[in-house]
């Protein structure tokens, strides 16, 4: 039986109504595909605190996790991922690629132009259908 991994990922939007997209490095599993940044939820950790911790580790900035956007379970060849995407805002710093090959900001309508990791696709599709929320 495949291991199921619970993962949280950040939907971070800037004041230009662009969403942060991260390119997985060649060394990562599912290499050279785009994803929303985040990582595994540790034992006894809440979804929001796990995501806030992961973003500090991966992007070197602080975020406030605000609301769950989408939840999707996807089966890869060697494991199953339960991916929970969470809408967030940056509270301190600027995102920088520490583990990823590249970070870019894209408008919702342009998200489909990237080659996304399969588990992220349902969240991408939802964001494309959604109206942007005014930046606060």
Features of this protein?
alpha+beta; Nucleoside Triphosphate Pyrophosphohydrolase; 4-stranded mixed β-sheet; 3-stranded antiparallel β-sheet; 2 helices
Task: Characterise this structure.
This protein is α+β, with helices and mostly antiparallel strands and 136 residues long. The chain is 16% helix and 40% strand. The strands form 2 sheets. A 4-stranded mixed sheet has the order 4-1-6-5, with helices on both faces. The chain is globular.
Helix and strand topology:
Blueprint: E1 3-12, E2 18-23, E3 34-35, E4 38-40, H1 47-59, E5 62-75, E6 79-92, E7 102-107, H2 121-129
Parallel strand pairs: 1-6
Antiparallel strand pairs: 1-4, 2-3, 2-7, 5-6
Query: Structural class, please?
Result: alpha+beta
Head-to-tail CA distance between termini: 45 Å
Helix tally equals 2
Spatial order of strands in the largest sheet: 4-1-6-5
What does the main sheet amount to? Answer: 4 strands, mixed
Question: Rg to the nearest angstrom?
Answer: 14 Å
- β-strand percent reads 35-45%
Global mean pLDDT: 94
Q: Topology as H/E string?
A: EEEEHEEEH
Amount of helix: 10-25%
Query: How many structural domains can be distinguished in the coordinates?
Result: 1
Q: What is the CATH C-level name?
A: Alpha Beta
DSSP summary, beta strand count: 7
Q: Which regions are unreliable across 5 or more consecutive residues at pLDDT < 50?
A: none
Q: From the 3D structure, determine the CATH topology.
A: Nucleoside Triphosphate Pyrophosphohydrolase
CATH architecture: Alpha-Beta Complex
Overall 3D form: globular
Quick take:
With 136 residues, this protein is of the alpha+beta class.
């Amino acid at each position: 039986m495949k291991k199921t991994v619970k993962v949280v990922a950040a939907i971070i939007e800037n004041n230009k109504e662009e969403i942060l997209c991260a390119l997985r490095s060649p060394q990562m599993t599912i290499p050279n595909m785009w994803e929303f940044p985040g990582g595994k939820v540790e034992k006894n950790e809440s979804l929001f605190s796990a995501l806030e911790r992961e973003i500090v580790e991966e992007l070197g900035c602080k975020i406030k996790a605000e609301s769950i956007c989408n939840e999707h379970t996807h089966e890869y060849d060697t494991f199953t991922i339960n991916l929970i995407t969470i809408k967030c805002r940056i509270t301190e710093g600027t995102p920088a690629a520490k583990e990823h090959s590249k970070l870019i900001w894209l408008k919702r309508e342009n998200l489909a132009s990237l080659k996304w990791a399969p588990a992220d696709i349902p969240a991408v599709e939802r964001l494309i259908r959604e109206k942007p929320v005014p930046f606060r």
